[in-house]
Amino acid sequence: MRPSVTPTGTERVLHTKEIIVSKTDLTGKITYANKQFLEISGYSEDEVLGVQHNCIRHPDMPRSIFQFLWDRLKSGNEVFAYVINLCKEGDHYWVLAHVTPSMDESGNVLGYHSNRRAVNPEVVKNVIAPVYAQLKQVENAASSPKQGLADSMEVLKAFIAEKGGNYDRWIFSL
């Protein structure tokens, strides 16, 4: 069950030499979390293992970004995405997540692996946060969560098209 945490507005910073690592099963339940994950999130290993990874989802994260991420993963592709996560006590931290499907020798997806690195705060402030705020606004203005996700996905697709139509090229240009 996703914990009920109220954001404090206080940002924690992941240092450039730190890497957060977590693994999930096919349903998104955490099967591994490294020391950095536990330290910055404020959770113990016992509190996160077997729990849905969205336990650290910040309410400012657009659902469309996660839909985009899951669509890429389910098609067998890796994805890089900026993510704002919520700590156990309500603080938050930004990361650049690299998420990949974990496959067996036959190519069957067994779960997902995520490495998360520090972000450039100027990129977050000037590029990512405004885009995410727009996507959240679209989601919140819709008549239903389903419609909000659909509308936000259209805005995200239009944004990517405006940036040249290649999400990976755009994200690596930041």
Instruction: Compute the number of strand runs.
Output: 5
Strand content: 15-25%
Strand order of the largest sheet: 2-1-5-4-3
- The ordered H/E elements are EEHHHEEEHHH
- Give Rg in angstroms: 16 Å
Structure classification: alpha+beta
Let me know the average pLDDT: 94
Question: What does the overall shape look like?
Answer: globular
Approximate helicity band: 25-40%
Count of helical stretches:
6
Largest sheet: 5 strands, antiparallel
Polypeptide structure, described:
It is a single chain. This protein has 6 helices and 5 strands, in the order ββαααβββααα. It is of the alpha+beta class and 174 residues long. A hairpin with a 4-residue loop joins strand 1 and strand 2. The model has no long low-confidence stretch (mean pLDDT 94). Helix content is 40%, strand content 22%. It has a 5-stranded antiparallel sheet, with helices on both faces. It is globular.
In short:
The chain contains six helices and five strands; from the N terminus they run ββαααβββααα. The protein is an alpha+beta fold and 174 residues long.
Summary tags:
5-stranded antiparallel sheet; alpha+beta; single chain; 5 strands; 40% helix; globular
Secondary-structure blueprint:
Layout: E1 20-25, E2 30-33, H1 35-41, H2 45-48, H3 63-74, E3 79-86, E4 92-103, E5 109-117, H4 121-141, H5 145-162, H6 167-173
Antiparallel strand pairs: 1-2, 1-5, 3-4, 4-5
Helix pairs in contact: 3-5, 4-5
